[in-house]
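User: Before I run my own analysis I want an independent prediction to cross-check against. Here's the chain; please return only the structure tokens and, at the end, one sentence I can use as a sanity check.
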Amino acid sequence: MDLELPAAAANESPQQKFALPVDSENKATVFRLFSIAKPHMRAFHLSWVSFFSCFVSSFAAPPLLPIIRDNLNLTATDIGNAGVASVSGAVFARIAMGTACDLVGPRLASASLILLTAPFVYFTSIINSATSYLLVRFFTGFSLATFVSTQFWMSSMFSAPVVGSANGLAGGWGNLGGGATQLIMPLVFSLIRDIGAAQFTAWRIAFFVPAMFQMLTAFSILMFGQDMPDGNFHRLKKSGDKPKDGFSRVLYHGVTNYRGWILALTYGYCFGVELTMDNIVAEYFYDRFNLKLRTAGIIAASFGLANIFSRPGGGYISDVMAKRFGMRGRLWALWLCQTLAGVFCIVLGLVGSLSVSIVVMIIFSVFVQAACGMTFGIVPFVSRRSLGVISGMTGGGGNVGAVVTQLIFFKGSRFSKERGITLMGVMIIICTLPICLIYFPQWGGMFFGPSSKKVTEEDYYLAEWNSKEKEKGSHHASLKFADNSRSERGRKLNTSTEPTEEITPPHI
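Assistant: Structure tokens:
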């Protein structure tokens, strides 16, 4: 039987030529890491490098904290408050970023935020009190919302079979900044001090390096980036190729999807834990094992640097599980990986040997970061219309988890850091359990298969559009996405179910 293209597609110009093979949405169906082909792989490299720069800036202070606290006379409470502030600002910034991506595109949204937060990195060099230290960390932390634009951008550029890998690599290599800054800042500080600057002056000058790096990445995005495979949001909307969507409808379909809220909670105890560790791990090893600043920084860096393979590995495993078991495989992999992360977190707080602590910390970091990658192997399928909102909710949940964890376990002197780490592990295990409640009627959940009502991908994604919007053709992108997401059924699932929409999705 011949398959009919939607009316809007019938009038389109011949498909563009891309360097990578693409699906019906012009999303790349393969991922070539060492390519810079426009637009898919160029967007990948721009997104992870810019996010990396924001991570370097946001966590540039912790590796220099033993020097900064002496210069500013910071107490343990001051340090704890600033740590919470550094990740709390991005809670609402990430939700706002998701909506901005849906409305104006990831290119303008991310570059604008990077440029708005860069001045606060510069301002760190002139702070003189605990209050000013807290404020610069708070406003610099807003830049971490670029994670949402990174994941939105990858989900817009790469097709279902490889979107987990693309999201995992972009997010993971961006998160590398949290580890790299543990090496970069002590090194920059040492070089400036050795040139002849006083110790309390050298750390201030050092902050010019991450600030300039951050601004450079923003200008690169504006000059070389592209929102979608077919062009930038503004041009596509102006030409009519991308229908203008209403803010209220986009927001409504995002916040009313319970799957997004569950992923926000669970992400709070993988990425949120990673943020917490970035704030405390250098000081933990410095104080507990009486190490030199540089040595503690190198050990702390190994936690974040595991992102070079762990988060991408999580995304890749999610894609592999989906090919064999569909969405149910993605859910099981996430639950198992994040639960194991909780177990190793508990162990980390209990061991008292430096060498054993380092080994356990690295194993813990691999599992917790892989869980982050697996989470964003699921996020793109929760909603097509409100992808940015769902990404923002999930990303914001990561920051909420970091705020809550630091307030409970690492603010002041209520718990020792080792005791706080152990309790954090227990919290990870408990907050991972709701994954079993996520259910997609067309694919199933952890314990139950697809709905007996034979719900199709088209039924699920087109439910976000009303009849008037369908008459205008606003739903055609969701129709194509539904067709391309059938791979989430897995090999075992009977794929004989036919779409119930009268407009048959295109096959490419």
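Sanity check: The radius of gyration is 23 Å.
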